[in-house]
Every structure is written in C-alpha cells, then in structure tokens.
# Entry
Amino acid sequence: MADCLFCQIVARRIPTEIVAEADGLLAFKDVNPQAPTHILIIPTEHIPTLVDATQAHTTLMGNALHLANRLARSYQLTSSGFRVVINCGPEAGQSVWHLHLHLLGGRPLRWPPG
Ligand code: 5GP
Ligand code: ZN
# Structure
C-alpha cells in the first residue's frame, strides 16, 4: 500500500533500524521508544488491524509471537520480563494502520495500562 507508513518501511523507503526479517515478518526499532527495548514486529503483507487477520494468517501470527520470543531472548529480557502488545483500533491507541506487535522491556511495566 503506497500510503502506508509500515509498507514504506518494508520497501526500505524510510530509514529504519531493522533487527530481524524472517517468515514474512519484519522487526525494527520503534522511532519513539517507550522502554529501553521497544521493537515493532510487522507482517510484510499489508494487514490493517488484528481484526483483519484471518484463519489464513494463523501461521504468520504464530511466527510473529515466536519472533517476539526469539528477540526477547536475544535482548536478554526473559528473566526480568517483557510485554507483547497489539493495539487494535482507535480506543486502544492504534496510530499506524498496519498490524504490528510491540515488544517492550528493560524497565518495570505498569498494569493495568492507561
Ligand atoms: P500504535 O500506536 O499504532 O500501536 O504504534 C505505532 C508505533 O509506530 C508507535 O510506537 C510509533 O512510535 C511507531 N512509529 C511511527 N512512525 C514510525 C516510523 O516512521 N518509524 C518507526 N521505526 N516507528 C514508527
Ligand atoms: Zn501497510
């Protein structure tokens, strides 16, 4: 999608610190990190929100969680803990309409979220 920010990142049209690419997924550092480690994991295919993911995307979504697991290990977050978040829709604060998982860690994270 020409007007989608994350599709532009997939196409390497926007400078981005990419940390992993595998299995139809791209992982890169968030430009405005909310924790010492803040990585976004996106499908390279344009899927606007979690609601738009179908049964056909179950392997992709499983791979996305597995990539979060691998990145949490490589950023040494597994003993301290970390969080994986998908904001879906306006009231959840979704601001980029291309499905993404946030991987957050490196500081205590409060619950419930704001
Ligand atoms: P959302 O609010 O949709 O759940 O998350 C969107 C995330 O994308 C935000 O954390 C925001 O900082 C990040 N973001 C927005 N624009 C860019 C960009 O151009 N590059 C990168 N790396 N992250 C971005
Ligand atoms: Zn997109």
